[in-house]
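Protocol step 4 of 5: obtain the predicted structure for the target chain.
Materials: sequence only (see below). No template structures provided, no constraints applied. The aim of this step is simply to have a reference model before the mutagenesis design in step 5. Sequence pasted as it appears in the construct record:
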Amino acid sequence: MAVVLFELHGVSFSRGGRRALDSIDAEIAPGATAVVGPSGSGKSTLLRLLNRLADPERGTISYRGRPLPGYDPLALRREVSLVPQLPALLGGTVESNLRYAAELAGVGLDPRRCLRLAGLGGDFAGREVAKLSVGEQQRTMLARALAQQPRVLLLDEPTSALDRTARDEVEATLTRLRGELEISLVVVSHDPDQARRLAERALRLEGGRVVACGPLEQALA
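Step 4 output (structure tokens):
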């Protein structure tokens, strides 16, 4: 029987008096899945539910066959790590940010390896995060997530604030990560072309509802 990463049954969630997700039924398989749809379709809300930054009002979500309420939220977030759309780094150096994440997860830290996996040189460890470019901050966020040794990365529009060159570098980094690590990606994107570059499957949302879920081209058709 094929392993399912996440299963969602009848999931609904409201925010600010508006229904952000409405009776969602979907399966997300291991590997790379793109969550696509127009602005306001519920993509970012879905990511927040997958690692219990919020809980659904109705319905159930399971991770690897176990309902999410059965997981300690902090333990779940170490295994299912969210990289937000906008960088949210702590003051200090790049390495201090990585060390903070590793200590939260209770794991050892190899800063150079995390930086390399995120597409940054080892010399970035001592740099002040306030002096990094937006692209460098985004990759530092990725390195910080990797410091927790997650099994799943949830990426919310990981290149939306970047120019084309930086976007291509981040996409190449994500592709390389999948080749080096046994890690699954769930990538929110408004760009179908980016979905095609990064994923094998897609979940398409419109107005808080699933309109397609499955192999990439089939879901995007």
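Step 4 remarks: Helices lie at 43-50, 73-79, 94-105, 111-117, 134-146, 164-180, 192-198, 216-220. The chain has a mean pLDDT of 91.
Proceed to step 5.
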